[in-house]
Amino acid sequence: MDVVLSGRAAKPKAQSLVGTLSFEFSMDDSLLDVVLPHFLSSLAPSWDARHENGLTTNDIRLTFFSNISFKGSLNMTLREFVQIHLDFPFAKAMPPVLKQSARSIGPFPAFLYFELHVQQDLFENRTNEDMNITSGKGHAGGKRKKNGHDENERPIKRIHGGGGIAMLSTFNPPADYVSPVAQPLRTKVTLYRTAYTVSDDGEVSLDESTREALQSPSFIHDSSLGQGVMKTVYQLDSPGHTYVVKRFHRMSPKEDKAVSVADNNRLLLDELKLLGCIKWLLASFYEYGKQQGVDLDTSLIVTEAWYAIEDVANTKPCHASGVSDDDYDVDVRDSGVAWLLEPRRSGGVMKYCGTVLGSKFKPVQGRLAATIYAFIHFAWLYSKKSILLCDVQTMIIRQDGKELNVIFDPMAHTPKGCSGPGDHGDKGIKDFIEHHKCTTKCESLGLDALEDDLEDLDLE
Ligand SMILES: Nc1ncnc2c1ncn2[C@@H]1O[C@H](COP(=O)(O)OP(=O)(O)O)[C@@H](O)[C@H]1O
Ligand SMILES: [Mg+2]
Ligand SMILES: [Zn+2]
After folding, report:
1. Which of 49, 190, 284, 442 has the most C-beta neighbours closer than 10 Å?
2. Cis peptide leading into 217, omega within 30 of 0?
3. Which PROSITE patterns does the protein's record reference (predicted)?
4. What is the DSSP letter of 181?
5. Which residues surround ligand 3, an ion (CB under 5 A)?
């Protein structure tokens, strides 16, 4: 295992922190419960000597050699992990000096090499600790104005002046972490967020009583963190928290027409509505599963999400909003610019199905996947055949030492075809009915077969 610092430069560069740590594990040890905690605690003395705050599993990302992501979750034994990565060249994917250790025992490699990436921005936002200072290097830049951007200083409590504890440190941050050029450009924003509520019968609405300003100063990064087919995602830094904000960059997967401020607003509200419905359906699913005594994977949750409005009454919309000077008219000034706000997660996306399954659809294997497919089937029936979830994806987060699989970016097919982009209406419903194969979870839950629903569909 190598411990690597991933900087918050626009193109993160990695810097090895403590050299390679190694340890012998049993193939039946769990990555999440045994391997990761072991390395975090071996790392703690040298980390804690240089930093005010300890590392948690949420600050780090585990990868193969040279930052290659692996499949799925850490919630498995080393044996299971190797089994789902049989196509991975374990023996080759390690630094040259270690390659001689790469023997195998039967089908299994005797030596696994991982990197533990410390996500500098997540750590700093969680702890308010500036790693450039606690590692002994002050800011080279400080306040600056560049390209007209008003970049205020990060709200850091300066406890050590720089020096001091740094005498113990062998850590030497590469120049691009302390140079102002490597800092991402961010724009200060005033953002109000509103949570949604879901009534007992599953109706979703914004709860105006929760409306609050995000703590100041908050910044939206100028360059995006990522982009899907529909939305562009930007990081938002707020004191003590790291979020993402999302906006739509197209109206439908096929159309490339520009999205107006009003269209974006509408699409985001539809997405929030769907998130709320799914949250309600998921709670009902787990409740029903419990009543029926069915063994379900209970690690699924729906992402936290808020409807957020960037206040642009007195300042232009931020760079990331994509709102041009021409579009910054009286209406936009009054209404503000809408965003979908979510906590920022690190790590990869796991996809269980696309918008359409099609005849070549190969379901993902395993207990979690079987639970998800049964949930889609259940949700269709329980929503009185009004919502057929599709494009189901998750990201993993760790909370209190447990792994949770967070559903985000949902889509659905609905009989009216109007739940949002990707809704193929009755055609999408027919596709699912034809290609969904009931899992043992669907059967144990006693879910009605779907075939009879085909007759009700309106297909020309
Ligand atoms: N909360 C988040 N934290 C970190 N990355 C995210 C988050 N949400 C989305 N992403 C990344 O951004 C990509 C696009 O976001 P997504 O909501 O899936 O948009 P789209 O509707 O275009 O697919 C995702 O595939 C994922 O890689
Ligand atoms: Mg997506
Ligand atoms: Zn089924």
Report:
1. 442
2. yes
3. ALPHA_KINASE
4. G
5. 377, 438, 442
